[in-house]
Structure formats: C-alpha cells, structure tokens
Records
---
Amino acid sequence: MTMDNSKIKILVVDDEQGLCAGLQEGLRREGYQVDAANDAESALRIAEKNLYNLVISDVKMPGQGGLELLAQIRERNPETLFILMTAFSTVEKAVEAMRLGAYDYLPKPVDLKRLRILVQKALEFQAVKVENHELRSRLQKRAEPNLLVGGSEAMRTVIRLIEEVAQSDVTILIEGESGTGKEIAARLIHGQSRRRDQPFISVNCAAFAEQLLEAELFGHVKGAFTGAAAQKPGRFQLADGGTLFLDEIGDLSAKGQGDLLRVLEDGAFRMVGGSDLIRVDVRIIAATNKKLPDAVAGGTFREDLFYRLNVVPVVMPPLRDRAEDIPLLIERFFDRFGATHKRGRKRMSPAALQLCQRYPWPGNVRQLRNVVERLVVTCREPVVEVAALPDFLQEFDGSLVTFTVRPGMPLAEVEKLLIRQTLMHVTSNRAEAAKALGISRRALQYKLKQYGLLETTEAAAKPA
C-alpha cells in the first residue's frame, strides 16, 4: 500500500531532548511532517492546534505520563494512533497501553529501523481501517469552521431538526442545491449522535462506474475480478458501528439502487465474489441535489428505495434564501483562511458586504467560501472594498438594468440576451450559469452554439 508521506503528521514526545530530536530527524528523513515536545503538557497544547496521524510517546515522563497523554489526545481525536516507548517494559504496562488504545509498544533503547517499520505498519493499519482519503477528509473537516450558522429562520429550522434526529438511528435524506453544505450537515448529525466516536464514511455514488460501485460499497474477495489481487473491505464494513454517508444518491444506477435496497431491507450483504453473509451496524444518511419525487415519477429512481431513504427529510436552504447569514459566514471564512494562509485579519466594507448579500450565489456557500479565500490571498488591504471584489460581483448591480425586454421582441432574442447577461454578469462558470437558468449544462452549451455566443462568452466562461 502506497501513501504520500508528506501528508502524514507525527508528534514525538519524550523528556530526553537528545532522543526526541533524533527520532524527529530520523522520521523526517522518511518524508513525514514531524513535530516534537519534551513533556505531556506541551504535547497537549500542540495537539490542540494540530491533528496528528500518529503520536510516539515515552511512557514515563515528569508530570503526566504517556498513558495519560494517550487517553486525552484520543478523547479529542479517536483517529490518532499511539506508539508508546519505555525503558521499563512489562507485560502489565503493555496490556494497559493496548487497553487504552495504543497501536503498539516499543522498548528503549529505541531501534530506529524497527521504529520506522512500526510507523509504516501503523499508518497502513490506519489507512485500511478508514481508507487514507477518508482519514484525510475527517482530519480536515474537524479543522473546518461550522458553516451551519446564522440567525435566519431557514437555518434555525435545519439546526432544530438535526438536534431532534441526531440521537436516533433513523435514516435521513438531505436535499439541497450543490454547495449548500449537505455533507457538513451529515457530519454534524454524526457528531451529535451516539456513534460520534465511530467512523464517518462517505461515498459519492456518482463517482464510480456501475460495475465498480458494488465492490466499493460491499468490498471484494481476492480474485473476484481482474485486478482484485487482495481482499478489500467495502464502505459498509468500514462504517460498521458508525455512519455511512451516500452522497449524490440520485445518480445511483438502477442496479445500484437494487443492491442498496436489499441491504437496507435485509441488513446484510455479500462481498463481490464472496459467499459469506456479512452483517454490519450502520446508520445511513443520503444526500442529493436532485428532486427525487420527480425522478420517481419519471421512472429513474425506485419508489421503494425513496421511501426507505426519506424517513426524515432535511432540506438545506440555498444561500440566496438566507442572505442575513452571509456576514457571519464571511467572518468565519476570513478567520479560517487568514490562519491557513498566514495573512492578517480582514473584514469587508459595508458596501462590499451589502453587495455580497444582494448577490444570489448560484454556487451557494461553496462559491462564497472560494471567493473569500481568494480575497484573503489577493487583497492586501485589511478592509475589502467593492473594487477588490471579483468582477462578477462588481458588475452584478449594473447587470440588473442592462437587460431590457421590449414588447414584440422574439423569444429567441430574449433567451439569447438572458444567457449572455447571466454568463457575463452573474457567473462566468457555465455549470453554475446553467443551474441559475434552470437548464442542463449540455442544453446551455447547445444554446451558446445556436445563438453564436461561444466566442462572445469565451473570455468570461471558466471551466466548471
């Protein structure tokens, strides 16, 4: 199993400064990001600001020892693995360390070669358990600000509903436009549930071809198909005891819908190529940006699966319906990206803030997030004025008066002008423009060609 060592963060804790520095340097040579502390108190302060894949700690130190440190860090971040070192190696200590959740135990004096091998095995174990990209996602999401904030009635309704259903195991369907924060809502539900210390595993149902999704969800045995060189657990197994988040459920194929329905009804499945029946304890949260009742009526989504998923619907409001929350969201993003990019604290001028509140944000919170991050990096002034905002925002108010419809104007001409103004003054992203216009991206592309607008909007159009 290969992994990018430069993405792995390790904390070394030992009161022997020479040993601590030596282990830090030895692991850095392997490509890891390695921090160091000489006592448990310092290690805790560092761990409050950073999320580590692995902590390597001495057991016996002045003040708090390694076992106490293990318990406190893993209480905050259950994903973090521990390797403990001691010159007083006993069976009792080893048993106690394993009981508290240590991955392994290493006697002193430390053999650096043996430590490197143990670190590699620990990280491979971690990657297999949660999948490496899932682990990185969880570590990152824990550091993200809570974006489900604000005083709007729309968001208060969502928060109240989440608080009501989080503690139960009821299946939830989160609906909403792209960029409204559906996965954030799913993670918030998981974080407030009794399963919060267990895995949160997500899968994008639109990201896998039909023939691969079954193996992704249910796993496969060795030799199940060409390229299956080893047995691999599926997302259901990885989520055992926790929550499985099925994103873009509306894009699930007919076969995938049938496979999922059987698992929801029977509570069991077989790995691809396997014969053993596997049962797991998983809470299902699904999400979609499609209107599933319309898909059911159109015959593209199974009615029985829809009712299985739609036990409790949670509807995420678009940003245009919660404009009063935009100032707080912008403040959160300024704090987040100011720290990430090591830039000074910024705020928006009243005029810039009002313009952001008037804009309809077809890409919702995700689009706002990207704009604020861009401003953090590109704007040198502490106060962001209107002139520093992206062109599509600056031109937005003007665009409200540049589109005039005259009685008797051909409908084709009206459509042409509307499409052009949307791309030039609302959003240059064609996928977002199509969504704002209520048509598919393919239909928009056809109309651009039909009306000779491809070259006219080329400068404004950006890849989606």
Note: The longest helix spans residues 112-130.
---
Amino acid sequence: MENERITVRLPKRDILSIDAFIELGEFASRSEVIRHAVRDYLRKRSSEILESANQIKQVQQLQQELKSIESYLKK
C-alpha cells in the first residue's frame, strides 16, 4: 500500500504524550503513533456507524410490523 504524507498540527500536550509513548518504547516514531491512532479511530468509528445503521434498520422493521398489525389492534 502506498503511503502519502500529510501535515498535522497538534497541541503541544498531545505531542508530549506521543513522545512519551516513543520514549517508553511503545512506538518507534511519531508517524507510527499517528498511524496507529488513526487506524484505531477508523475501526471504532466504522463499527459505531454500522451498529447505528443496524439499530435504525431494526426500528424501521418494528415500525413496519406495527403498521401491519395496527388494524387488528383497533378492533
């Protein structure tokens, strides 16, 4: 996979935290930390969006089922 370079501006406290991870040996570079964070965010956010979509689909199905039995409930 081809990588592309981007520039990101972060608050100093975030950079210090990133550098602390590097000093602790968790990551080899700032780029590695950022790549890891972005991958984690995208994975988590994608899962949240899929979960929300599934919940919306379930609500729509329940609404449809309710409409189909609504006439029986009015009797």
Note: The chain has one domain: 12-74.
---
Amino acid sequence: MGRRSKDITDFVKDLIAIEDIETKKRIYKKILAITYKQGIYPSSIHDFYSARGRGELSGFTAPAINLRSMTYDLARAIFRVAIRNNSGAFIFEIAKSEMGYTAQPPCEYSAVILAAAIKEEYRGPVFIQADHTQVNLKKFKEAPEEEMDYLKALIEEAVEFGFYNIDIDSSTLVDLTQATVKKQQELNFETCAKLTQFIRRIEPRGITISVGGEIGEVGHKNSTAEELRVFMEGFKERLRKGLAGISKISVQTGTSHGGVVLADGSIAQAALDFDTLKILSWLARSEYGLSGAVQHGASTLPSEAFHKFAECETAEVHLATEFQNMIYDSRHFPQELKEKIYQWLKVNAASERKIGETDEQFFYKTRKKALGPFKREIIGLADSLRDAIAAEIEVKFEFLFKQLNVINKKELVDKYVSLKRVISRKRKQGAAVAHDGQGAD
C-alpha cells in the first residue's frame, strides 16, 4: 500500500491546487477507481436509518461533520478514530453555502474524503452528505421555478460525485405569520416533497439516497410536535405514491450555526432543549418510521452536553464551526498567516461589519469566508504543522465518537448497508451493481 498511499496524497494536492473543474473531475474519477479496488464505497445511510426507525437500532447519535478546511488531514483523522473504535456510523458533509466560501465543489470534496479513506486503509461504506440544500427565500419569492431548477442542478451534481445523502432545507419557506401550522409549513413540505421526488428520479439504481427534511430554521423558534406532525402528513400527501420518503427530520431546539459570539470573542452558552429533542425524536420514529430528529449547530456546545444526544435518541448531530475554530486557534497555525487572513477580511468582508461590533466578533463571524481564498496556502503548510493541528482535532473527534456512542457500530452498518459500485451515470444512467458478499440484501 505504501506506493499507492504516497501517490494518493499527491492526487489530493493536485486536486486542491488546480482551479479547472474538468481536471478536478478527472482526478475524482481516478480516486474513485482506487476506492472501489480497496473496498471503499460512497454509500447511502438510508437503510441503516430505516432499521432504526423500525426499532432495530438505538442508543447512539451519528456525527455529521462539516470539514471546511484541511479537509484531507481532518478526514484522515476521522478515519483513524473510526478504525480504532470500530465505528461505521459517521457522516462527512458540506453545505451549499460552504461549497462556495471554502471553494470545495462536490467533485473535490468527495474525492478528498475518499482519498483520506484510501490513505488510512479504511474499508466499507463512506457516507458523504450535502448538508443544508437550502431554498433561498428571496429568490424563491421572485422566481420559484428558477430557484428550484438551481437546487435540482446542485443536487444532481452532488449525486454524480457520490453524495448519496441529501439534506433538503426548505424550512426557510416556513411562514409564521400564517394563522395555522399547516399554512405555516405548507410551502416547506410541498417543496421538500418535490425535491425528494426529483432525487428518486436521478438516484443510481440499487441505491436509495438518504433524504432529510427540516421543520424549523436553525437559530429561530423551537420546533413543536404539532409542526412535525403537520409537516410529515403534508409531505406524505404531496409525495408520489410508492416513493421512499425522508429518513430523518431536522428540528430547532435552541442552537444557532457557529454559536453566538460575545464581545470578548467567547461563545455564549446555548440553552438547548433536550426534552423537546427527545420527544421529537421519539415521535419521528414511533409515528413515521424515521430514524429520529437531527440537531444542527451543535459543535460549540459545552463538552458535558454531548452524551445527552445519544441518551435522547437523537438520530444525527451536525458539527462544523468548532473544528474551524480549532484550526485557527491552534498554536501550530502560523500567526503570520492568521494576521494575513484577518487583514484580508478587513478589506473583503468590511460590508459585513456591524456598528459596535468588536474585532473579536467581526473576525469570528467572517473568518470562515477566508478559507476558500487561502485554501492553497493552508494546504501548503508544512506537513509537520498540518499533522500537529490534525492531531489536536483528532482528540476532539475521539471524544465526540465516544460521547455519541458510535463505538462498535461497524458490524451493524455493514449488516444494513449494501455496497454498490455505481457505473458511469453518463454512459448508463442510474446503473449500479452490488458488491459480492458484502452488506445486506
């Protein structure tokens, strides 16, 4: 493996260094061919989540991790943690907005994750997810069909590059000014059903893409049981008969993306409502056969909170900002590069600065926007520096895997998730073949 392992890192560096998207796609195909030979398969978590909805699995929460920077290094760290702990129930994800400001299109993100699996000699299914495939409310109001076409194109591109897990976020369309909950949620469940039908039309044969819905926009009011029921009943009515629906549902219970930063740069304590999370997870499973509720915006919560997700039977928790913070705030991250980034933000993100905002608040809020423009400089750091930063964050990954109780879940994942090799969708639309002797029927 030594020679191939060295070459895969070279592939990754070439992939990140170049800007031409067609060249990136060619490198993705080369990496994908190697993954299949090594027993690594981009996969859907749908069947695993369906088993949980039937009550066959319980007691854990799958971490869905957004990697905004140092993606290769941190993905390798995650795979090392997974191998040590015999875990298989974890997801790599990136949101529509993150693809933009981190300059990581689907072909690149997927290729880098798979390359990390090759490098660490991981085996089995790898779950890659399009997080927050979000409807832009303003654009939807102005031209709904154009916004839907844009989202469909984004979904199709993601699926082409192994994103077999798609989170639809049409919660932006919830209108709380309406008199009834059904009217408030109507555009949300209608849009989610339409996009789910589109996904079922384009998914590779033999693979049921895991689709997530969302009933409450993160950072807004907490979700209720009535909202969940109204959404699900409306969604089922709008979804064409015979099609697989969603496998999970995102709710709002008191968090916000990135946390709320105080004037001194510290993060305000979030008042997360675990009772609501527990109730909504139970309702989603018992009444609708979903895997449970999904919690967004959780990475900056205090350490002592994480074990509660598994106790509440939360299906999935999304984690992003804290890993970005750990990169920037690491003692191994070069101070001169950090200062260069902050100077860039003063010019290029000046319009985002609010009156009365401190430097700490401004930089904390905007520094994610520099990850794309400085991507090549970050990947160009000495291997020793990147390894040291990744080692610090690997400790956090280990802690989270244990707190979320995804230890020793590999055999369960292998039981329910069939490994499928997807043949070129261009030449043979939707074709897939089962991998002999692996996974469930």
Note: Confidence is low (pLDDT under 50) at residues 1-6, 257-262, 426-441.
---
Amino acid sequence: MLYSTKEDLLNDLNGIVDIQKGGTIKIIDTDTFRNNKIDTLIYNAVFNKETTIKNISRWLIRGCGNQLGIVSSSIQSLYEAIGKKQFKGFTVPAINIRGLTYDVARSIFRAAKKNHVGAFIFEIARSEIGYTDQRPVEYTSAILAAAIKEGHEGPVFIQGDHFQINAKYYEKDKDAEINKVRGLIKEAIEAGFYNIDIDTSTLVDLNKPTLTEQQRLNFEFAAEFTAYIRTLEPKGITVSVGGEIGEVGKKNSTIEELKAFMDGYNSTLSAKGKGMKGISKISVQTGTTHGGVPLPDGTIAKVKLDFDTLKNLSRVAIDEYGLSGAVQHGASTLPADAFDKFPETCTSEVHLATEFQNMIYESSVFPKDFKNEIYEFLRKKYASDRKECETEEQFIYKIRKNGFGLFKERFWNLPSDVKNKIGEELEAKFDFLFKKLNIIHSKEIIKKTIKPVGVQLPTPPDFP
C-alpha cells in the first residue's frame, strides 16, 4: 500500500507509534508495528513518489529502530580488539545485497538469530549503488526494516564497499572524481553507514621504480579520505575505515606492498592530525575476481585462492600494525570447502555478493517469464557491451546484475510464495556460511565490544 499523503501515513500509525513534538519517537505497540506496519513503511520508503512521504518513512524506520535497540553501528571497537589479539578464530562476513534487499536481509537476520550471530555486515559498493538503484539512505532503511521485522536485537553494521576512485575518470578530471567520492562518503555517513571501505588501489602504478612510489597515490588518498571521514562522524561514533593495496582481479598482493602502503599511510595520516585513528583492516588480492569468471557454458571457473599469502598478510597486518587482519573480496562463488579456511588464516573480513544474486535468478521458483523478460531487455540495452568472444551464457551472466535496478519494483512485488521460498534457500546458505566462518554465538562478543550509539536524526522538512 502506498500512502497518498503524510496524514495517511500518520493516521495509519495512530495508536502504534507516537511521534511527539520535536521529533521524539515512542513505539506504543511493538508487535503490531513489527507484524502489520513495517512492511508498508519500507515499501513507501523505497517506492512512494512523494518525497515528503518517502523521507518520513525512512526517518521513522531509523528512529523506531533506535527505540528497539536496532542501531546502525560501527564495528571499529571489535576490530580494535582483534588487532590487540583479544579475539581470534572467526571471520566477519560482509554481504552485498543487490536486489530483493528487504527480503534477502530478512533471511540473513533469521539465520543470525537462529545461530546467535552478531558479527556480520551489510554492504553495498559504489558501482552497485548505481546499477541496483539503491542510494545509501534507501539501503539503510531496507536493512533496518528487515531487522525490525525479524526481531533482531543489537547493533547493525552497514558498510560502504569499494568507495573507489575510478582511474579513468581520475585521469580526465582529478578534482571532479575526488569530489564524487567525498560526496558519496558524506551521503553514506548521513545515511548511517558507519563502516567505509576506501578503495584507491585503482591508482597503484606498478611501473614506478619502488613499492612506495607504486603505492603513493593509493596511501595518500586513503589518508585524505580517512581524515575527511573523521570530520563527519556523529558524536560518540568512530567510523571503521578499510584500505586496499591490491585491486581485485589483478596480481596477488605481497607483504612488501602491505608494508609500503601502511608505512606511507600512517605517515601521511599522522601529518593530518596527531592521534587520528587510521584504518582497521586491509583488503588484499589473493586470486579471486569479483563475480567469478564465467565459462562459455555459463558455469564459473574454479579459483585457486592463495591461502598462504592471505595468512601471511593477515599476520603482518595484526602483528606489526594492530589491524584486525586482511580482507578477502570476491569470495561468494568459491567452493564450499574454502570458507572454513578463512578463520584459520586470521582473515578479518570476507566479502560476499554474486552467489546470492545467482541464487535468486536460478531458484526453481523464480518466474521463467519474468526472467526471460529481464534477459531480453538487457540483451538489447547492453548489446554494445558484448565482446565478440563471449557466448550467450557468458554475456547474460555478466549483465544480469543490472536487472535488479531496472526492474526493482517488479522484484519487490513478486508473489509472496516465491519470495518466501527464495528467502528459505538464502537462509540455508547464510546458515552454512555463518557456521563455516565460525561466527556462531558471536553475539556475546559483540555485546562485549560494541556500544551502540543511536544518532538523533533531524526531523524531515514539512513534518507536522
């Protein structure tokens, strides 16, 4: 149901949520709000054409979440504790949701609740924000609404993934590209993204004579963006910041590169402000590719991930720099027996995305006519992007991620039985991953290390 006016919205919540003068929110009937109203509120937060109603819906979801102890939070203090060797033996999954965001997030919260999991992150990359048509405030709303719906308790970690300088745009107009990243950082933090992965590894130049010079633009801009983030933090929150030394899909990272980056980064950051907190983790390349490499028949090529390199990089990151360890990207399409190796190698965080997209499209209950309609539309729209050597299956595999943004409302409005079945399949997958990554019962660790800070948001304009 879409509200026609803000009065309709407020009347629908009458007796359930009390909005007091000054914007203070008080939930009167939690069960009714969770069971009967949050679905409508998040639908309006995403799809209502009236900006006022959309903004009020988003504000209410965030405010009601705070009231219920479902608070968008930074994972910084957990990562600091890992860097001090107070905890080890588990890897935090960072999960990118490209489509059916509310329903997929619900399946994650169900799997987490069943296994007493607290250490998991929701994230979205700069590129995904574009092709999935999900700005940060919308993404936060969907995640927090899902947490409310499933009765989650505790902090929720939402992360900007690959907030990246595009090397081609940087060459054309340096200032414009830097300002785009700065603008996205500001937008994300205002939306409740209190975890930001800076990716300036795109500027690494392997043609330079020394490792320091190869990494210079990378560590200088990483330090600049870190300092900028620190100026935007709400009171009581230290945003967890990540850096990256090797672009995913390129050559594997080395210990020497990690040290060159960290030494240059720490020196540059120190010059910007004494005692300023730096990054809490470091992303590296050990053999994966985002989305996997599709073979001519559409299946994914097997990846040989270098776990020895990952282990050694994590060890140096922790022992010498007090970080939480190395971060592995592009891992969701790895074979099942690979995932329990991440905790063994002290991998801090593993980023997972494409497999969940694949599970949605390839589910036996996903409507075939709708899938064919999406594929046919994408074939025409992206025809110029097809390489001569690509098979039909490879081309579709590469471009179908774009369908989530172009057909967002159609995905959202799939029949309930279809969404429920897909949700069950995804929940089983997340249950498996949580066990493999050894984060079962991590809720207790989160309680010990994280103190959520509920940020008071300004009342939306034109609000009575």
Note: The chain has a mean pLDDT of 93.
